[in-house]
Amino acid sequence: MALGWSEIRSRATTFAYEWQDTEGYEKGQSQTFWNEFFEVFGISRKRVATFEERSKKGSGNDGFVDMLWKGVLLIEQKSTGKDLEKAYQQARDYFSGLSDDELPRFILVCDFKRFHLYDIMRGSNVLFSLHELPSKVELFGFMIGTPFEKPTESEKVSIVAAEKMAKLHDSLKEINYTGQELEQYLVRLLFCLFADHTSIFEKSTFHELISNTKSDGSDLAETLANLFECLNAPIEKRLKIEDKLSAFPYVNGALFAERLPMAAFDENMRKILLESCAFDWGHITPSIFGSLFQVAMSDEQRREMGAHYTEESNILKVINPLFMDELNSEFEQIKNNAKKLEIFHNKLANLKFIDPACGTGNFLIIAYRELRRLEFKVLEARFPKNAQLSMGGATAYAKIDVDHHLGSL
What is the per-residue pLDDT for 295? Predict the structure, then answer.
């Protein structure tokens, strides 16, 4: 009979206590550690998973997976204090040697004192200590038969979008566009993609700009460099000429302030960027930004830039009770009163939010998105017979401004 969560937490507490003072060694103690870990959940490891499963690495050489539960979980174990980021990359390297039905949904890397669990399908990950295990056991619901949640359509698109941007990141890195300049370049591209679908830019202006570059990509880097310079210039300080960049707004906050070295694009890189433009980034899960940066940056860079992110589900647990629940409730009470709706709309437009340690900005992005969703409900209630609202015309009536969402690393 499956164990309940109360019993599992009790077992996890015992497990954490018994291993807390152990100096873990990968070869000498790994199998005992994981056999006992599985027992926390009332599972005999021998029944579901194997140690030292042979698999081809990406290089073509033979390797041995520390532990594999086919189709479910791959574990890569290291001695205490070893680099878990390298362990994760090593775990991913085994994927090329696994068949489709063997590919795991989850990767777990561990050094006896820390656990880092990755959900490949959702693109999310959680890092926690051995001491925290009792409070984190529900992350391992898949081990006791809790059905996997199928990703939403938004999450499916997000995964594909992340893969596209990761390919572009790798292509730039291959031509020696590296380090913090590469990360900042990628942040700017992500911002432009997001802005193109969320009324920060006029819809599809960025997509159109990229589409009008040469098919071989030879002028794309120059086009982007000119765009970045334009976005950093207040409207009143720009040259009074009409050109393909005049439709883009000024973006404050220093995102485009630094002049970056010009990159270089080829036909394939241009194609990847155009394919990325085709996604509706207004519906893409914002945690894509955090997961991309986490994967792309080294541990040292993440510490320097504060690029640690919180998953969307946890962000909603904060912003909903903090202000969104109250705002949604207020809307429901006045949605049939035209005068009160107008006052409420103006109230939304004047709200300001600040995250003084925003990292990748997920709190601000999701807060902005949720407010815009509420604003659209307000517009539908205020202008019920306006067919343009359902045809992309809501921008003309929108009042919520991204400039009211402020952040600092």
Answer: 46
Backbone torsions φ then ψ of 325, nearest 5 degrees: -60, -45
Give the domain-ending residue among 144, 172, 195.
Answer: 144
- CA torsion sign for 140, 93, 168, 251 is positive
Q: For residue 50, which phi and psi values (nearest 5 degrees)?
A: -125, 150
165-223: pLDDT as tens digits: 878 888 998 999 988 898 889 889 988 998 888 778 888 899 999 999 999 999 999 99
User: Residue 279's domain spans which residues?
Assistant: 153-304
Q: d(Cα 274, Cα 88) in Å, to the nearest integer?
A: 30
What would the DSSP string read from start to end of 246-297?
Answer: TTSPP--SSTTTS-PPP----HHHHHHHHHHHHS-TTSS-THHHHHHHHHHS
Q: How far apart are CA 34 and CA 36, in angstroms?
A: 5
CB 270 within 8 A of CB 210: yes
Task: Provide the 10 A C-beta neighbour count for residue 314.
Answer: 14
The CATH number of the domain where 125 resides is what? 3.90.1570
* The pLDDT of residue 390: 45
User: Which structure tokens are listed for 206?
Assistant: 């960025």
DSSP codes, 27-79: HHHHHHHHHHHHHHTT--HHHH-EEEEEEE-TTS-EEEEEEEETTTEEEEE--
In this structure, the answer to whether residues 157 and 285 fall within a common structural domain is yes
Domain count, the chain: 3
Domain boundary among 98, 121, 144: 144
Judgement on whether residues 281 and 324 belong to the same structural domain of the protein = no
On whether both 66 and 130 belong to a single domain, the answer is yes
356 and 331 share one domain: yes
More confident residue, 86 or 21: 86
